[in-house]
Every structure is written in structure tokens, then in C-alpha cells.
Design goal:
Blueprint: E1 2-4, E2 29-39, E3 50-61, E4 66-75, E5 80-88, E6 124-130, E7 133-145, E8 149-158, E9 164-175, E10 178-191, E11 201-208, E12 218-228, E13 233-242, E14 251-254, E15 258-261, E16 267-275, E17 283-293, E18 296-306, E19 310-316, E20 319-323, E21 327-337, E22 342-350, E23 354-359, E24 362-365, E25 371-380, E26 387-397, E27 400-411, E28 414-420, E29 431-441, E30 446-449, E31 459-462, E32 466-469, E33 474-482
Parallel strand pairs: 20-27
Antiparallel strand pairs: 1-7, 2-3, 2-10, 3-4, 4-5, 6-7, 6-18, 7-8, 8-9, 9-10, 11-12, 12-16, 13-15, 13-17, 14-16, 17-18, 19-21, 21-25, 22-24, 22-26, 23-25, 26-27, 28-29, 29-33, 30-32, 31-33
Amino acid sequence: MIVSSVWLHSFPHAYALANYAPGVKAGDEITYGKFSVNNTTPYPPFPGNVSSLAIQVKTVDTLTNTVTAVLVTTYSNRSQTNATLTGTTDTGQGNLAPYLIAGGLTAGDSLFKNPGYLGVSVNETVNEVYAGALRTVNVLNITYQATYVTLKAAYYWDAKTGLLVEAYQNANYTSPSGFTITQIFFEATATNIWTPDTSPDFSFDASAQTPGPHLGETTSYRLDLASLNQFTGTIGLSPNLLGTLLSHPPSVTISSTSLAVSLSNPMATSVLTVASNSSTTIGTYLISVNATSGAIEHDTIIAVTIAPPDFTIDANPGNLTLSEGSSKSSTITVASRGLFTGTVTLQIQSYGSITPTITPSLVTLNATNVKGEAILSVVANAGVPPSVTTVYVDAVSGSISRSIYVQVNVTGPDFRITATPSFLNFKEGQSATSTITLTSILGFAGSVTLSTSFYGPVTASLATPALVLTAGGTVNTTLTVSTPAAGPPGAPM
């Protein structure tokens, strides 16, 4: 499993320590529009017909940091449902998150005072427009990768109130039954907490262009400036390391320290680069970039973690399709992250009627050899039935362990069974029939025994429970389903 994000666990910075108190008050409301859901999983987080969400704050207890609110879901047919949100902003207990966290946080602050297993921190503090006004917002970016799921998510909270103003999630799930996705996006479009801006100004955002750096690597952030309300002028940029610095901090540079925006060119971009080497102290750093034009001044703050050297593992191709009695291979690549050096041991395990091997089982990485390869060979044993199985590849070096899997689809003679119709509708005391069809796949030939099972007040029988299927052919039988005269209505199976 791989989890990556610019997380801060414990790092002093130049601002007052957060008290994790609520930043909202009773009566505050915020509405989320631009709602989009694309879901192919059986368990969608939101129905596909949601048009908007709204948060209505009902009570706030500043002594216990407890907030009660109502989540109003509006559907495309204009109907609504309400759900209660309640919890504490300091501990994160309850179901307020992700809709509401503490107010007054900044980059580097943990989302909760005593986070426990939720020990994630604000990655960035930037300046963006929501519900018509320029707001200082806190950003959390998360990338999660495990055997069967890949997740990318981004959450933006208004820094003053702690209210969620934008959310994005893209999750991909892989299983033997197929590939499914969940994509969600919505952002704040209206609120009674602030009013839209009319004065000339500019927004100031930052976005990571490369993954968080390991020792010896360089990472970069794109700094985006955009004119608001016909602002024109030159904006000066100045980067600084904040807080109590570790002994050997990374170097910080910026590609352009002065940018101009105008009505004809309302956007401008600079690149912030953070570089580490063998002498850089591993840890988390707060980097502030000040943007100033006359009396207008905005700050973007980024929490950057210099992580220990590491390595990655990849498989190409990531799935194999082979017939019984044959073999195929996948190239397993181990690559260093940062200044990693050492020997990586590759181990495999699998289930089902396949025989996998990997050669070599040891890969050595160093300063001149930053990438190594091994060949995973998979043999589908002769005579095995068609199946889908998985080969797991574990890469271990000292305390570092990384895993990947290769899905294996073994094909061979098989048959498919269908029912026409697949749904029967009839009155009590009557019966109905469905045609059961067997179809040969890849030359399957032989005897097939059919059996029935059923639930509820019905009986089922097959005209011919044993069928002989020829190679490339089809064969049919009839399923008869009956109900007693006094049976209750329903949908037995």
C-alpha cells in the first residue's frame, strides 16, 4: 500500500498555535452547486440525481467545540432530504468532516488537535474565489494506492470558518469482476457568511507539479495569479522558509519574481522549486510565497515534506491473459526514489492453478543503477478450468516494503448459461417457463448437469437436467416455475 501526500505531523511554525475552535456560528449557511457524480460501483456515495447540497449550522458550543448542522440534499426533481451533522472540531469525533473542520488553521496544521489515525495536515494555504469572494482557503491533497484501489482527492476549506468550499474525489477500483470508478466534484456557490467582492484584486493559488520529494529529489509547484474585477498591475513574488528551521533546509527558488497581469492577459504563472541533496535534513518545511501589488498583499503557504529515500515497484503489463497449458510474462521494475541504495528482495505468492516464478529475485540499486528489472513468468497448468487469479509481488529492503499485483486470466474451453426470459411474472396457482441455453466457448464439449434452487413458495423443474454440449454449439432445455394456489404475492427466486 502506498499513501502519499504532503503531510505535517509535528512542526513549529511562525503562527500562533491553532486552538481548533469552530469558526462558524449558528445561522451560517453555505450551498454547493456544480455538483457532478460519475459512479459505476454498487454503492454510490451520492445518488446520480443530486443537484446541490447545503450546510445549515444550527448550534455552536464554544466550550466543547461542538457543532450541530443540517446537510440538505436537493435532487433534480426539486425534492429534498435532511441529515444531521454533529461533532467536535478539535477531536474530529462525529460526522462533521469533511464538511466542517476547525476555523483558523493554516498550512502545516493537523486537521484535528489529537488526530490519532487521522493524522493528516493542511498541505497548502492559498487564495481562491468561492461564492463570488476571494477567500483564504486550506487545501488537503491525498493520493492513496493499494492492491485494488487508487484514490486521488482534494479538499478545500475556508480558513476562517472551516467550512468545506470545494471537494474532488476520483477513485478507481479493480477486482476480478471488473473495473469501477467513483468521481465526485462540487464547490460552494452561495453563502450568507460573506458577500461577493467588487474591488480589483487577484487570486493566488499553488499546485504541485511533481510528487512530494524524497531525499535527493526536487519538487516544484506552479504558482497561479489571476486578475479579479479587472485588476491590472505588476505583482512581486517573494519566497521564504517559515518557522524554526531544521539544520540543513532544502533550497527554495522561484522562476519569476515579478509578474504582470492585464485585461488582455489576466493570468500569470511562476514556478516554485524545492531541491534537496544528501545533506538536507529530513523533515517538513513551511514555505511562504508573498504576492504584493501596491496595497494588495496575499500569501500562499505550502507544507513540503522531505521524505527518506525509498523505491517504487511497477508491473508491465499489469494483467496477463493466457490459455491453459501456456505461459506469459510481465516485467517487474524496481526504481529508486531519491538517494535510495540497497538490495531489494522480490517475493511472489499466488492462488489458483497457476505456477509463477520471478527471475532474478534480488535487485540492487545504487547511484549509477537507479532502476532494476525482473521477469515474472506465469504458467497456466495444463487442464485447469478457466479462472481469474492474482499474483502478488512483494519488494522488501530493510524496513521498506512495497507490493504490487498482476491479475491473471486463464482462458480455455468453457460454456455460458443464459435464461430467456430472465424474469417471470405470473399469478398464484399458475406456472411459467424460461428457456435455458448453454453455449460452447473455445471448443468446449461434454456433459453438463443442471440443478435448481429456489426460495419462497415456488417449485422449479428442468425438462432435461443433463445436457450434452458439442464444440461450438448450443443446447436448450426448459425451466418451469410454479406457485401454489394460496401462495402470497412477491418476488421469490
